[in-house]
Write a structure and sequence with these properties.
The structure holds 2 protein chains of 2 kinds. By secondary structure, chain A is α+β, with helices and mostly antiparallel strands. Chain A contains 3 helices and 10 strands; from the N terminus they run βββββααβαββββ. Chain A has helices at residues 55-60, 66-79, 106-121; strands at 2-4, 9-13, 19-25, 29-35, 40-46, 87-93, 127-130, 136-141, 147-151, 157-158. In chain A, a hairpin with a 5-residue loop joins strand 8 (136-141) and strand 9 (147-151). Chain B is an all-alpha fold. Chain B has a single domain (2-14, 96-281), classed as Hypothetical protein af1432, CATH 1.10.3210. In chain B, helix 7 runs antiparallel to helix 8 (132-141), helix 7 crosses helix 14 (218-233) and helix 8 packs across helix 14 (218-233). Chain B is globular and about 55 Å long. The A-B interface holds A 6-8, 23-28, 47-49, 53-54, 57, 60-61, 64, 95-104, 106-107, 132-135, 152-153 and B 103, 157, 161, 164, 168, 170, 228, 231-248, 251, 258-259, 261-263, 265-267, 269-270, 272-273.
């Protein structure tokens, strides 16, 4: 069973037959977590770094922002019995347009927001494929914990 | 150069924009024509009328009651929205197919077109442009060149990709270098053959800001920002990815700060589910 994680969306699962997939991450970031002991996985696709630009939207949809979406992802996985200490963490996306520098570089700011949050909370990233000028699609098979990434114009690779 | 001649010949294979669409666009731009004039043009086209009603009654617009006539549609939604619908319907036939050369599945280029048109319209409203309909149309059709260039990009993909990945070319610059023409320029030629207005031709041709002078044009600036927002959001993102040039000075001239850019993304992001509904009925 394939479940699509949309833009500004999050899903967690312990269904061994389920595959979570999110398509076409541009400057957005996809965070995938997996605890192999309890076979619980989760995926978040957020668009922007900080919820303070629109608190109302963040309340309606916390998955739009890094600072509200990431805690939500982890908490939902904990709810299914996952533990932070056992979690595999994969981060992809955060691409940028050529010459997109400074504060306009939303891909980079998305990535910085995540790193800040992970650093504060002692989360270690196992695999990261971030930046560049490409679109990425990522999926995880909940039964095995296998994670695959496809960069546009290339074949899918196992991470 | 014979390759370019072949490409231009292929413009004839596109489904032509129905004459009624050109009529409507001319009427919208002409300050002398009234709302009734425009509604009349639409009324005489049964296919367009049927499509408008279908779109009006879709979940995207979530109207309080059923729309049964063009007159109803115009009263309830305003003429601009109705004209947008006509334009979307007429753009779909060429853009909906997958574009393998660009790594786009069926519907992806179309989703990008509609999304950037909606973002551009919103921005045009905020920036007080007098050419909202033109901006909407240009955003919808700006990548029409990709439909023709697709096969050629597919054939030369490795060369193009090498220039992008190893030599710092933008995807458009690489298209030009390898094929001899890029999708924006080719889109401009299509617009010319379809008898679009000179301003519209220029907007399509310059949606990546090829021409320095185009960077001063408000409507082209808006179109450019809408396209960039879609790229960042990964909407209809293909093998060309985000490999286009970002012109910060143009955003500044348009009065868009980094925070404004994030707000545009947040606000369109909240609309995405509704847009999916709209795409189902076009």
């Amino acid at each position: 069973m394939k479940t699509i994680v949309g833009v500004s969306d999050m899903k967690v699962s312990n269904n061994k037959d389920e595959v979570l997939i999110t398509y076409s991450l541009g400057s957005c970031i996809g965070v995938v977590i997996y605890d192999s002991q309890v076979k619980v996985g989760g995926m978040l696709h957020y668009m922007l770094p900080e919820s303070q630009i629109d608190k109302e939207k963040a309340e309606k949809n916390p998955y739009m922002f890094a600072d509200t979406g990431i805690p939500s992802l982890f908490k939902s996985a904990y709810g299914l019995g996952a533990l932070k200490s056992r979690m595999k963490v994969v981060v992809v996306g955060g691409a940028q347009i050529l010459d997109q520098k400074g504060f306009f570089n939303i891909g980079k700011r998305n990535h910085m927001a995540l790193r800040k949050l992970f650093f504060k909370n002692g989360v270690i990233i196992d695999h990261e494929d971030v930046g560049g000028n490409v679109n990425r699609t990522i999926r995880i098979e909940i039964g095995t914990g296998d994670i695959y990434m496809k960069t546009s114009g290339k074949v899918e690779e196992k991470l | 150069m014979s390759a370019i001649k072949d490409l231009i010949k292929e413009i004839d294979n596109l489904k032509p924009i129905p004459a009624v669409v050109n009529q409507i666009m001319d009427a919208v731009e002409d300050s002398k024509s009234s709302m009734t004039d425009i509604a009349e043009i639409i009324l005489y086209d049964p296919v367009i009328t049927a499509n408008i009603l279908k779109m009006c009654n879709s979940a995207y617009y979530a109207l309080p009651r059923r729309v049964d006539s063009v007159h109803d549609a115009v009263t309830m939604m305003g003429l601009n929205q109705v004209v947008d619908m006509v334009l979307m319907k007429s753009g779909a036939s060429n853009l909906i197919k997958g574009q393998e050369g660009y790594g786009l599945h069926e519907g992806e280029l179309w989703k990008h077109a509609v999304s950037s048109a909606l973002i551009a319209r919103d921005l045009a409203e905020k920036k007080g442009s007098e050419h909202k309909q033109m901006i909407f149309t240009a955003a919808l059709l700006k990548d029409i060149g990709k439909v023709i260039l697709d096969r050629f990009v597919g054939d030369s993909f490795t060369k193009i990709d090498d220039l992008v990945k190893k030599k710092g070319f933008s995807f458009k610059e690489a298209e030009k270098k390898v094929i001899g023409i890029d999708h924006a320029e080719l889109g401009g030629l299509v617009a010319e053959m379809w008898d679009f207005s000179p301003k519209m031709i220029s907007m399509i041709k310059n949606h990546h800001l090829n021409d320095e002078a185009a960077r001063d044009d408000l409507e082209t600036q808006i179109l450019y920002v809408a396209d960039n927002v879609c790229m960042m959001m990964g909407i209809g993102g293909g093998a060309d990815g985000l490999a286009y040039r970002f012109h910060r000075d143009v955003l500044k001239r348009l009065g868009i700060s980094p925070l404004d850019l994030q707000e545009i993304i947040a606000s369109f992001g909240s609309e995405m589910k509704r847009v999916e509904e709209l795409l189902k009925v076009i």
